[in-house]
Write a structure and sequence with these properties.
The chain is α+β, with helices and mostly antiparallel strands. It has 4 helices and 12 strands, in the order E-H-E-E-E-E-H-E-E-E-E-H-E-E-E-H. The strands form 2 sheets. Strands 2, 3, 4, 5, 6, 7, 8 and 9 form an 8-stranded mixed sheet that branches. The chain has a 4-stranded antiparallel sheet with strand order 1-10-11-12. The longest helix is centred in the last third of the chain and has 15 residues. The chain is globular, with a radius of gyration of 17 Å.
């Protein structure tokens, strides 16, 4: 494997960095949202069964880690409520990577995992207690390479609404859900950029308030959701 580029600090560890405080450069409200009829369970099944020709908008972030590239998977769990909801987690602050950030359930692949989907399902059960019997895997989106040297496969799945979750308190500070329609509407996709020591970094954010708490979805999670939007809109 090729050697990594010189190490650069992750944005979240730059002095006084707060992604919420970075100005919004633009909002993509000129782009159409994914219609509601394309977000039903059957429509999602059909989309993954016969995917369109498309390309992800974001395939890779600027690397800031010298560690060897590692494969990982995340589960993009769409809970089948009256309106489809995407389940997300807030990571605990003491974790070594992406601490305190909003994330999908997921993690590094193990040699025993049979596939990226198997990794995502195993990690989701370990992190939030989501048992496989409640999950219907639809398919995977293209890999997303993070600045922290992970090559992530996003595995999209339908989740039965009667699932029982048991979050691992070491890894997960909170679990919450966001309407799929909110995430697939570019009017909620904000663009940001910052330059640090001559390196420009750009990212999306998708701030969401559930009526009780505000959740700042950004970075890799927002990037994968943006790719999901492109997949659904293609």
């Amino acid at each position: 494997m090729a050697s990594a580029p010189p190490s650069e600090p992750p944005l979240s560890r730059l002095p006084d960095f707060d992604p919420r405080a970075i100005p919004v450069l633009g909002v993509d409200d000129h782009l159409p949202p994914v219609p509601a009829h394309q977000q039903t369970p059957q429509a999602l099944r059909e989309r993954f069964r016969a995917p369109p020709v498309w390309s992800p908008e974001i395939a890779s972030e600027k690397r800031f880690s010298e560690r060897a590239l590692a494969h990982a998977s995340v589960l993009v769990p769409i809970v089948q409520r009256d309106q489809p909801m995407v389940l997300l987690t807030e990571r605990t602050v003491h974790l070594s990577t992406h601490s305190g950030q909003v994330a999908f359930p997921g993690g590094r692949a193990d040699p025993e995992d049979a596939s990226p989907a198997d990794t995502a399902l195993r990690e989701a059960e370990e992190e939030v207690g989501l048992e496989r019997r409640f999950v219907e895997v639809l398919g995977a989106l293209p890999t997303y390479r993070t600045g922290s040297s992970f090559i992530i496969t996003p595995v999209v799945a339908l989740v039965q609404p009667d699932c029982v979750l048991r979050p691992n308190p070491y890894e997960v500070a909170a679990i919450f859900e966001v309407p799929l329609a909110f995430l697939l509407d570019p009017a909620h996709h904000q663009r940001h950029a910052v330059e640090w020591e001559g390196v420009r970094r750009e990212w999306f954010s998708m701030p969401y308030h559930d009526g009780v708490r505000s959740h700042f979805i950004w970075g890799a999670t927002a990037g994968m959701l943006r790719n999901f939007y492109r997949f659904m809109q293609a």
